Amino acid sequence: MTIKNFYNEMTDEAGRVRPHYASYANWLSEMPTERLSQKRAEADALFHRYGITFAVYGENAGTERLIPFDIIPRIIPAEEWTILAAGLRQRVKALNMFIGDIYHDQNILKAGHIPPEQVLNNAQYRKVMQGVDVARDIYAHIAGVDLVRAGAGEYYVLEDNLRVPSGVSYMLENRKMMMRLFPRLFSHYKVAPVDRYPDMLLNMLRSVAPTGVTDPTVVVMTPGAYNSAYFEHAFLAQQMGVELVEGQDMFVKDDHVFMRTTQGPQRVDVIYRRVDDDFIDPTAFRPDSVLGVPGLLGAYQAGGVTVTNAIGGGVADDKSIYPYVPEMIRFYLGEEPILHNVPTSMCRKKEDLAYVLDHLSELVVKEVHGSGGYGMLVGPAASKDEIEAFRKVLVAHPERYIAQPTLALSNCPTFVESGIAPRHIDLRPFVLSGEEIQLVPGGLTRVALREGSLVVNSSQGGGTKDTWVLEA
Questions:
Q1: Where are the domains of the chain?
Q2: Does domain 343-406 have CATH number 3.30.1490.270?
Q3: Chain segment 449-460, per-residue pLDDT in tens
Q4: Where in 254-362 does DSSP place strands (E)?
């Protein structure tokens, strides 16, 4: 699937403004460039004041910077969102059933739909979770599903984020910023609200408390202030009105978890953890971890506490498992997928590897455990030397990689230094699974600010936009 044309979110192939953008396009055409520049500067100043930053790793480790915010929104009509929401609910439901299955009866493996070694030998598969029953049989309580639009406008799922998906705080803050900068715009559009997300999140977390707990205590567990997403951890705890804790603030006794308070120990029933599996319990995983709670796994296995997202759920968002999600939907739900995957070559297969090696300059090659835009090759943007260096790595460890066609990601008008210009975008809606599967209308739209770039990740210089879903 090599797609040549870029789908423009605001205008069609003939340059006509799409109906759902009409009112906004008229407003934008009358807005002086100087005024837009002033508003962008105002937004930057406010984000600095509020401390809405993103910690940088790598060459500039230890520094923090703003995630660039674009003041031109991405707009989605109501009927389009209805289809997306149905597809997202379907996908996350099947993924939850898959995780429960692989830690119990393993029916999908026995039926031959997924090679058992792909799951059981996966680095994210936790044998300690075999046979462990979790509250409401839910494993991926918070899912961030990355969607891209290509070709004639069809949406594709690029990846599923089921471990500790981040970005929802920026979705919420982007909306607050747009309403502050351009309050009159919201009187011309019926934009579906997103501000109820913290309430939805708290209600979902309370709904998955251990059996018999009627008034659960919920906490947000953070690795600490040096984590790249610490702002989000603190923000969500504050918005929900719950404690933000680190591993050192908690201890385990009699298969229950307690946090230390000035009034003495207080039992914790639900932990919304933003700490990876490897670091969550030094007695069960990495013994050198200073971020976790000794004994937490045992309390979790005994049903004394709920951990969200579940330990061991990461196997389902591994890129080597991604190609099988459509089959999961058919197997568990008896339905055809509403949202499609991007066609994917699995380099562990000899015939797929041969194809990828012959077409490296055309493909995007990704590490199956990679994230944040690292560990990947974007063939069309790579030099010959980069391609040849990557070829050697791929030949040495083909099982570590998948490859996909270079999608012509849709673009959206974006206010950059040179003025208004098209830039490529994706969308990360957030799906909550508790008593029911819910999501607020919208998500985090990420934008590749560099001209021609297809990499939207914040760690790679990407920015964000407010996402407007119009009400019917």
A1: 19-342+407-469, 343-406
A2: yes
A3: 888 887 787 766
A4: 256-259, 266-268, 270-273, 306-308, 340-341, 345-346
- Contact between 342 and 146 (Cβ < 8 Å): no
Distance in angstroms between the alpha carbons of the first and the last residue of the chain: 33
The β-bridge relationship of strands 363-367 and 401-405 is antiparallel
Listed residue (172, 286, 285) closest to 232, CA to CA = 172
Q: Indicate whether this model's pTM tops 0.85.
A: yes
Residue 249, both tokens: 């603030």
Q: What is the dihedral of CA 358, 363, 368, 370, to 10 degrees?
A: 130
Length of the chain: 472
Integer-rounded Cα Rg, in Å, for the chain is 22
- Cβ neighbours of residue 212 under 8 Å, at least 6 residues apart? none
pLDDT one-digit tens code per residue, 409-451: 899 999 998 899 999 999 999 999 999 999 999 999 999 988 8
As a whole number of angstroms, the distance between CA 316 and CA 365 comes to 19
Rounded Cα distance between 343 and 405, Å, is 7
Q: Provide the 10 A C-beta neighbour count for residue 148.
A: 21
Tell me how far apart the alpha carbons of residues 31 and 223 are, in angstroms, rounded to a whole number.
Answer: 44
